[in-house]
Amino acid sequence: MPNEDTRPIKVEVKNLTKKFGDLLVLDDMSFHIRKGEFVCVVGPTGCGKSTFLNCLTRIHMPTSGDLYIDGVPADPKKHNISFVFQEPSALPWLTVEDNIAYGLKIKKLPKEEIKKRVDQILDLMGLQEFRKSYPGELSVSAEQRIIIGRSFAMQPDLLLMDEPYGQMDVKMRFYLEDEVIRLWKELGSTVIFITHNIEEAVYLAEKVMILTNKPAKIKEEVKIELPRPRDITDPKFIEYRNYITDKIKWW
Amino acid sequence: MDQKTTKQKAVHSILYWGLPVLAVVLIAVGWISFSAFNPELMPSPAQVWERLVKTFTKPIAKTTLFGHAWASLRRVLLALLVSWVFGIAFGILIGWNKKARAFFGSIFEVIRPIPPIAWIPIVIMWFGIGEFPKILLVFIGTFVPLVINTSTGIEMVDRINIQVGQIFGGKNRQILKEIVIPTALPSIFAGIRTSVSSGWTTVLAAEMLGANAGLGSLVTRGWQGSDLSLVMVSVITIAIIGALLSTILQKLEKVVCPWNN
């Protein structure tokens, strides 16, 4: 990757502030994310990561400041924002393929386009043989794959992932981390990935944003300039990891 | 070891096939011996069978047993159709809309615990003993479980499922129609199942108070004429139809909610 990032700015957050009553949770956060960038957000537990995400998805409205996508205030009805929740959130009455198609149907895409995208995602996620199964018949990790697939199928302007692998064992997490990287490269989506696992952040991100304790501000943005696939035992990798860990511990 | 497990499996399958049969046999033996010792209290199976045949050769109130069964079933089905439409709609309304729940909720809480049979005197005073009051009674008896199950199902829909719809930019009505109602479908179906059994009970109670046709009227007729065989014939018919209805609904549920094993 060249040192100077020339990709256009996709998402711009300006002075984002959120208060619940008198409690200040997000304090004047400003940053931007370039088109097709993969950003990980790390921060201490309870620092307001979820509130941060909920403001981005418009589940909560910010108290002041705003989020712009392509220069316009973000609006789920206009823009394409996708979300992978921490908990499994597949719709239980839909088959795997219908779950993946669900968001596309809400956006009223043409039938052939939906079919094309669903097939592509099923292939990429290795879910072809389960396309007619219901989520309840599959394992938790397969269900999480459906949700990740569903989000990528939207080809979102912005894909938000909230600790999607928090509940999985190490082996499955490594596997799904590689999957996400593969989908991201293939489809060129812009991703914000929230995690408290620093190793995961360094493994995935082009840029890591470190949040401070509550009220959350952006403490530092760290560019991860490591070739892929990354090796978690590489001394440089460890150096990044230790650096970020120190930043989180230090205040 | 394999041999042992196959042997165990065989024993199990015989056991679980045999136990229900054993239960039926025990009841039959109990019935036969009880009726043999107390013929004035209980007719024997053979007498009941004879009485059953007689309901076809010598119709009661110009109607065979099938006619009576159909008369009861028709009342139940008519009432159910109306109550499915209104009960489910009302349940969705108070489950989804907070204002509607605030308005109707307390009235419904008061009406809810009244057993349907308690409505019988009022309904008969107001509407007499024709078809309409019977159907109305069944409607009352089936409406309540439908509303309760539907509204609870709607209220219990996981927030995360609703958020999925919001994030994808679904409109409120889309979220209700495409996420909330399908998620609540198993509960709604539980309401339908309860409504059918409750409707079947209520119609018989209503018929026992005055009707020319219907299984409930047969029970009353047998009772008043000391024709215990006729009572038994009606009761067994009631039981068989009730069991059939519940089997049909179970099958239907698998078709309507296939994800809900």
From TrEMBL, chain A:
It comes from the Bacteria. The keyword Transferase does not apply. SUPFAM superfamilies: P-loop containing nucleoside triphosphate hydrolases (SSF52540). Its EC number is 3.6.3.-. Keywords: ATP-binding, Hydrolase, Nucleotide-binding, Transport. Pfam families: ABC_tran. One of its GO terms (molecular function) is hydrolase activity. Residues 11-238 form the ABC transporter domain. The keyword Transmembrane helix does not apply. Gene3D superfamilies: P-loop containing nucleotide triphosphate hydrolases. It is an enzyme of class 3 (hydrolase). InterPro entries: AAA+_ATPase, ABC_transporter-like_ATP-bd, ABC_transporter_ATP-bind, P-loop_NTPase. This is Sulfonate transport system ATP-binding protein. It comes from Blautia caecimuris. The lineage of its organism: Bacteria, Bacillati, Bacillota, Clostridia, Lachnospirales.
Automatic annotation (TrEMBL), chain B:
It holds the Pfam family BPD_transp_1. Residues 69-249 form the ABC transmembrane type-1 domain. The chain crosses the membrane at residues 14-34, 76-96, 103-129, 135-154, 228-249. It comes from the Bacteria. It is found in: Cell membrane. It is a multi-pass membrane protein. This is NitT/TauT family transport system permease protein/taurine transport system permease protein/sulfonate transport system permease protein. It comes from Blautia caecimuris.
